[in-house]
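Researcher: Structure for this, please.
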Amino acid sequence: MKTLFLLLSLTTVGLATPAMAQHDHGPAPAAGTAGTPAGRPAGRPAGREWTKQPLLTGKAERGDRSSAKLTLRGLAAANITVYASEGPAERLKTEYPVGPDGAKIEAVTSKIGNYHWVVAREESADAVRVASTAWYFGNPGDSPKDMLQTAKHELEIVPAPLPREHRSYREAEKWRFLVRFNGQALVSQAVIMETELGSRSTVVTDASGHATVVFPRDFKPAANADGEGNDARSRSRFVLATEKEDGGKRYLTAFNYTYSQDPERSRSLAWGAAFGILGMVAATPLLRRRQQNEGGKDNA
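Model: Predicted structure, token format:
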């Protein structure tokens, strides 16, 4: 009985860990959104190029809730444009020059936060390439819904909607994204999804121009420095991309952001381990009795 109580106590401690980790501190701490991730997700080698799509990535400025440093990948753009949902009219759309180490962007004001829409554009005679992301600044601010409904480039992928404050995209969840061209919804348009952990899929927009994306369950369990598995706040990047040709010009647009591990998966694994341990404990007396009986027969 002492062994049983000890195993149950250890199991309870193990179950408590994923439950406590469920409190998600929003979409802020992740490269390409509004900060740096707590740690590199398992299975992602440092520096590995995981997509050919153009990306906007970066991190929050240390100790500053209203600014961030962004860098471009796979795109040559002179400026990064930031759109806000509220604030002074002259600040609702702001251009920031891109230097050798990227561009420092800012919230519409130091006291207004929430989501801002961030875009970089590269254009030539026969092609337009656009990278976009959402950046969450920690201060309160208006909903980005109306701001996102306004077309900003020819071909766009727009979250419909973005996760609410203190939420995020998560493994196994379904989310919709609007694909539009010149402000009009694109029907039967193929959208490619790639994740930093190696998943790749293609979805097609419906009659309203929305692509319904199911986030893959591709986080891999791994031990951290404390010997514990990844918690529910582990994050990885994803990108959605689509292309269209019109008037002899090729348009490509990509939206990148982050998604997090499904906390329910860790809980299910913990419960499975608990039942396995209990099963072994329950079977121990039967095995001992069987061994004793077999030993008695041999002596006879």
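Researcher: Any notable elements?
Model: The chain has three helices and 16 strands. Helices lie at 2-20, 145-149, 263-299.
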